[in-house]
Amino acid sequence: MIADLQCVVLDCSHPAQLAEFYRALLGGEVNRWDQRWACSDDWATLHTSSGLVLAFQRAADYRPPIWPDPARPQQFHLDFGVADLDRAQEQVLALGATVLDVAADERSWRIYADPAGHPFCLVHHLPHSV
């Protein structure tokens, strides 16, 4: 092993606002003290209950990706497992997400953008049987 994943960093215009969006989606604590970095107007973090840390970094002249335009590609995306796609969709839209894929047919996933334009997917996740 060469490294441990410390966090996933998302560029954006408003780090604190985007951290709050993901806190409402995933739970956790925004800007919890962590010796690995200092929070500021240009850097916010979200420590989730699963142990994942997302960080949000202010980028000068931030330009969001445009899905699926290769001239401004998505750069990355996050997949979130949910038990009920319809309910989860209502919740993320209420938080400020936008729908990127309007063809919500019988697929087991749907594609959205967070308030800063980063694509993410809600994926139907069946509970594991023991």
TrEMBL record:
Residues 4-125 form the VOC domain. CDD domains: VOC. Coiled coil: none annotated. InterPro entries: Glyas_Bleomycin-R_OHBP_Dase, Glyoxalase_6, VOC_core. PROSITE patterns: VOC. Pfam families: Glyoxalase_6. This is VOC domain-containing protein. It comes from Micromonospora pisi.
